Model the fold of this input.
Amino acid sequence: MEITDLKPGDILLLSGEKGHFLSEAIMYLTDSPVSHAALSYKTYDKIVEETLPQIRIIESKTRFENRTVFVKRLKKRQKSMDPVIQAAEEYLNNLEPYGKANLIILGLLLLYKKFSPNSLTQKVMAKIFKLIADDLINFINKHRYPGKYPMVCSQLVYRCYEDAGKDYRLLIAKGNLVGASMLAARNNLSILDQTILKIRRNKSFEFRTFLRAGTPLAATDIYSQNEDELAQELMEALKTTEAEIPIELSHELVEAIHHFGQALYLAHTGEKTNGQSLMQANRIGMSPNVLNFLKVEEAYFVTPGDLLSHCRNIEEIGIIEP
Done:
């Protein structure tokens, strides 16, 4: 298939960037050959995508360089794809913000994935969640985008089709992460569910004080590693042959997840990173409101791998080779 064969609204799923551990980690966690999603725009030579620092239009030829692109369309393609393009333009006109594209995807994949990590993996995960939170905090303090949720690339594609109306809605079946439930078996809970359970069960004064703290949210900048180095460390930890039995989530990891949740919650609401905002964010419910917010968002989290392999009303119409 050639780039000139692309039509408006085509779903574009891109293979990972060679030599980038972050892309490799996303593909590993989703068991998929793709790490990024975008939409073909009004003409074949332009695509629209969610990336740093906000949604943008870019030349397709430039973005496809050295990457395999899987092209998908609705099985019952509508006569006009204008509603999908118009939905994308709404996000474009609102300058939808974004943190670090693949880093946030990686964090949400880890958060919603059902597994029990060993201590080595937990240590790396804690560093990743803290790095994402730091990036979001710095972004929030630098830019003011009230009420603009920093979507990941595949969520943008999914929501553009969702906003276009019921005839365009993408139907995900047995996705990578969609459908995790608090009713699942104990050894089959997502990391987020395990975090919520630990918080509910921990009655210590120190832990409760931490959760209800009104301390202004600030970047810690405690790790010198960049995101690709951490992704490499994560891959090594996940693939380790170390015969270590999975353990309960550590206090350090729970704190890091909560810190990440606070930052994402404030990015979504447009609130400032001050103590008063955080006291309100943490006050509601048995578990902190920020974690309840993450739980609600789980139902809307769609991965690039889902769009490639788990969407039952779209079909592959071709592959653009590098």
